[in-house]
Amino acid sequence: MARIKAAERNRRGRAPISKAKTKTTTPTGRAKIVTKRSSTPLNASREMVTVIETARSFQGTPYRYGGTTRQGMDCSGLLYNAFAAIDVPIPRSSNEQALWGNPVRPQDLKAGDLLFFGASPGSSTITHVGLVTEATPEGVQFIHSSSSSGVIENSLETDYYLSRFIKAVRPPL
User: Fold this and answer.
1) CA distance 159 to 26
2) pLDDT tens, position by position, 101-123
3) CA 65 to chain CA centroid, nearest Å
4) Does residue 66 surpass a pLDDT of 70?
5) For a designed S-S bond to 67, which of 36, 72, 81, 112 qualifies (C-beta 3.0 to 4.6 A apart)?
6) Which residues are catalytic?
7) Which residues pair with 31 in a beta bridge?
8) Contact 163, 147 (CB under 8 A)
9) ∠ CA 146-143-104 to the nearest 5 degrees?
10) % of the chain with per-residue pLDDT over 90
C-alpha cells in the first residue's frame, strides 16, 4: 500500500515529524510511557489540523467502551470529541461514522480521513475507527482508541491493521 501511495504523492511536501515520550498516569494509578507525535500536515485545512491536534491531546487516555472523557473513551468517542473541537457534530458509533463522508481509495488517503476496521482479518463488519493523522509516501499514521493500549497512534501498514481494514471515508467538511 505504501508503494501505491508513494507513486501518487511523490510531488507532495511533508512536514517534519517530532516525537516526544511522556510519562502519564492512568486513572488506576499505573504509570505509562506514551510517544506523542507532532507534525502538522501540509495538505490539511485549518479545521482538520484542529481535529488532529485535539485527537492527539487524548493520547494515553485509557480505553472505555462507550466512553467520551479523559477518564476513558472508545474509538468512536475519540472522533466524536475531536470533531466537536470544530463544532462539527458527527455520528456517535463507528458504523454510523462509516456512512458519514465520501469513500476514499487507500492510495488517496490524506490527513483527516477516517479508517474503518473489522474485528478479524477479512471481516466486513465495522467494529473500529481511526483518524488519519499523517499520509506520506512512507506510510499512513492514524490515531484511535485501542482496547489494549488506549488512545494511541499506529501505522496502517502493519499486518494487523491491513488485514482488518474495510474502508475509508473523507469527512464532509
Assistant:
1) 28
2) 999 999 999 999 999 999 999 99
3) 17
4) yes
5) 72
6) 75, 128, 144
7) 25
8) no
9) 115
10) 73
Q: Mapping DSSP to helix (H, G, I), strand (E, B) and coil, where does residue 72 land?
A: strand
- End-to-end CA separation in angstroms for the chain: 26
Per DSSP, the three-state class of 9 is: helix
C-alpha cell at 125: 463488519
Partners of 130 in beta bridges: 115
DSSP alpha helix (H) spans, the chain: 2-9, 46-56, 75-84, 94-97, 159-164
Query: What does the alpha-carbon distance between residue 150 and residue 144 come to, in Å, rounded to a whole number?
Result: 8
Give Cα separations from 50 to 16, 33, 128, 132 (angstroms): 18, 24, 22, 13
- With 0-12 / 13-18 / 19 or more C-beta atoms within 10 angstroms meaning exposed / middle / buried, residue 103 is exposed
- Could you list the beta-strand ranges (E) of 39-164: 68-69, 72-73, 102-103, 114-118, 126-136, 139-146, 150-155
